[in-house]
Amino acid sequence: MSHGVFLTQLSTYLQRLTEPHKSREQEGEPIVVDPAWAQSVLLRTLERVEQGESSDRHHQKRAAQYLQEWQYQDRIITFVRELIRLLRHGLAASEPEEQVKGLVELGLARWLDLPGELQTQVRTAELDRLVAEANKFAFNPNPSIHRAKFDVAHYAASNQLVTRKEGRVQISSLGQQFLEHQGREAVRFLLRVEVQLALGPLDPDRLSRGAASAMLSKRSWHDDGESEEVLCAGSTETRLLDLGVLDEEEYGPNLCVTNVTPLGQELLGELVNPEKPPVTLISESVFSGAIPGTEQLSGKPTTYSLRKLMQGVLRVNDDLNTFCIDHFPEVARRFSSEMTREARENLLLQLQGTEEILAALRLHAAESVERHGHILKYA
Questions:
Q1: Does the global pTM surpass 0.70?
Q2: 3-state SS of the chain?
Q3: Which of 275, 310, 319, 327 has the fewest C-beta atoms under 10 angstroms from its C-beta?
């Protein structure tokens, strides 16, 4: 089973972060677009068009139609994210965030023939070129075009493969562990992380356990443009298609069938196995000896040392409560307001294995665990 471009792009991005003296634009800082801001830019721009500021009167008549077209399938957000990515690789490589936002708004305005330009004709022409490319990307109906350009920086940040320290993006211990895997093992590792962190079936950056179960149950489903059934976010499905977990078959212009591949059946089956929750699977990856420096960790973390680690990482009661709610909800549901911190720790340690708790801690607070790692002892 061959994999698409996502693994290569993600591995390249993380590998570059391990190299010293990377500048902000080289680091590929995560592109996070505030939907409210993107919508406000669109509204301000189209209001100017409606008021007759555009040199092309044809635009003024179609202002309301443009609003619908840009809002359809969040095209304005896709456009803004792609334009920011393009700007960071050239015209605004070293500019602060507010300057980049200004260029986005100016670029959209110029696309609709509103007045405004940069300091030189050359820079203005380059902005127009980037806007045209971002517009083509946002409005292209072919999903394979979008598959070729994943926002791996955003994905890495969402799945804790990177951390931010002193204003710089750095690879996390989880990201370093990912780099030790290739091919199907890399896909297996990412899916285990995604499921552990997923916020639900429509999480755009992570596959949920429920979505994985639904895919396995169906094995095949179709999109005829009218079906209201959604198993996962569109971006997640696109990523799974590229990773080889899913594949597509087209039966005409309006019918596309999505199938779970043999690889998908294997990996998704592992994720929904009730005897091995995702955090246990991640723990197995970490302690399997595949990660350099972990071969000597042949035993399990001792209860005493893990308790001390939790106290160092989860410093206040609210930290412990949040950790359990996020990673061990069944344990959290058994907490009561009368329970002391020690009683809650005891319950967690009684109901969950030390390896599972440690793997969850690494997902929850990778930097802090790394900082306090010397506390751990193994039996």
A1: no
A2: CCCCHHHHHHHHHHHHHCCCCCCHHHHCCCCCCCHHHHHHHHHHHHHHHHCCCCCCHHHHHCHHHHHHHHHHHHHHHHHHHHHHHHHHCCCCCCCCHHHHHHHHHHHHHHHCCCCCCCCCHHHHHHHHHHHHHHHHHHHCCCHHHHHCCCCHHHHHHHCCCEEEECCEEEECHHHHHHHCCCHHHHHHHHHHHHHHHCCCCCCCCCCCHHHHHHHHHHCEEEECCCCCCCCCCHHHHHHHHHHCCEEEEECCCCCEEEEECHHHHHHHHHHCCCCCCHHHHHHHHHCCCCCCCCCCCCCCECHHHHHHHHHHHCCCHHHHHHHHHHHCHHHHCCCCCCCCHHHHHHHHHHHCCHHHHHHHHHHHCHHHHHHCHHHCCEC
A3: 275
